[in-house]
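Example 3.2
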Amino acid sequence: MDIPGLPARKAALRLLDAVLRRGETLDQAANGALQGVRGQADKALARALAGETLRWLNDLDALIDSATRQVLPDDAKPRSVLRLMLAGWLRLETPPHAVIATGLPLLAGGPRRLAHGVFSTLVKRGPKLPHAPTLAADVAQRWGERGGAIAAGLAEPPPLDLTLRDPAATALWSERLGGVSLALGHVRLPRGTAVEDLEGFAEGAWWVQDLAASLPARLLGQGEGRTVLDLCAAPGGKTLQLAAAGWKVTALDSSAKRLERMKANLTRTGLVAEIVCGDALTWEPVAPFDAVLLDAPCTATGTARRHPDVLHRIGPRQIAEMADLQAALLERAARWVRPGGQLVYATCSLERAEGEERASAVGLTPQPITHSELPTGLAPGPEGWVRSDPGMLREAGGLDGFFIARWRA
């Protein structure tokens, strides 16, 4: 007999295993894990269950441990199933009887009575999760004094941010879409909004881009026909911004698949850029550029609101590997800026090794970022760099974690 919702729970269990055991991202694991799940609603449920389990993993484990005589191993299947069951109940507000009906079949041939007993015990206690997810000790140590504020910003998935092709139409599109704007050229909508169904999508009036992710390109200003290199450009939000601001854009990325998505967005918006598929560590430009924007590959820990898998996949090894890559990319990018031109470096990481430590080694003349260039509520640091994190602008819906610095050649 088919149990409604069971395929989604099986897929969520596969997603958890891929992240926690194999170190994959949720996006990487999705194609394989969602095989056999019919319908977008069930696929979305599987992603939501896995995402909320990862977001609150330490707190869910604490509840499980409080209701068992012997501690279950971290990789034990009953623990994973109980995590999903508790996330469904406490985060997605699934009634306990439905949680049991769809959770226990995941342990076919296994210790169902154990899982049933633990879950029933917790239901009787009526526990509540804390106001913010509990960070793992190593993560909290890395994020230092901002750790508590960042954790509070991770409690909910983020809203939907749009960047407008025409910033002058901000008030118009805010009204049409029923959203709010935190900066010129930005509109924020509630999460769960179906993007393709929104007014303005088909005609390319806007594209999806987190507010923090839009800042690096904003800091280059109006292009007025000047040349700019967008390094590691796909999937293309910054390329679209630069093209809309009047820059003559060369967009370089090593992923042909991601560049196809960029081409589709350029076509939809009617914007123009030269697209180059190549490796930034070996590619060489014909001539220097008036500006270079390097939004470098990174651990992406700043995107934990929407990608909570980074809370459990990223450690010192991954950070060190990314920092080495960023240093190599920065060294090349700095050579490709013409005298008097600008270089902007950014990462969507909360790690100092991928931000402040990389910027300190750049030999160009600093061009400090000013208050007037940033949305209200954000401020540059003493070096003129910008550090955002999910604990900022929380009352307005928050934003991703980014590091941004700027220089003149």
